[in-house]
Amino acid sequence: MSGIETILTDTAPAPAGHYVQAVRAGDTLYISGQLPIRADRQPLPDASFETQARQAVTNMLEILKAAGGTPAQLARVTAYIVGVANWPEFNRVYAEMLPDARPARTVVPVPELHYGFLVEVDAVAYLPTITTA
């Protein structure tokens, strides 16, 4: 594989700006920041931090899956959370959703996120190219 491949799936929300859901450059997949927006772009029925965290991680995992990856191939995840008080809840949800994957991770408490959301996640995954002889 050469060049940069765009990854798009309808199982995660379509980008609302000048970016794509993810790009694959060689063996590396870069997943754009995922807000807690449903794939159909409809509002979440419950705006709790837990619901938002689950949706943002789900979006990330759906894009990873669309690229042919699994959670075991996540190399790095960055989470931006509004308020340090939400850190324990994020840890709990994250561990439930990624029980066997332990990529490098950074959690960054921030004062606010776009549209008033409480969490955003992005990721980098290693997807080795399979070659056949």
Automatic annotation (TrEMBL):
Gene Ontology cellular component terms for the protein in this record: cytosol
UniProt superkingdom: Bacteria
Record-level Gene Ontology MF annotations: deaminase activity
Family: Belongs to the RutC family.
Protein name: Reactive intermediate/imine deaminase
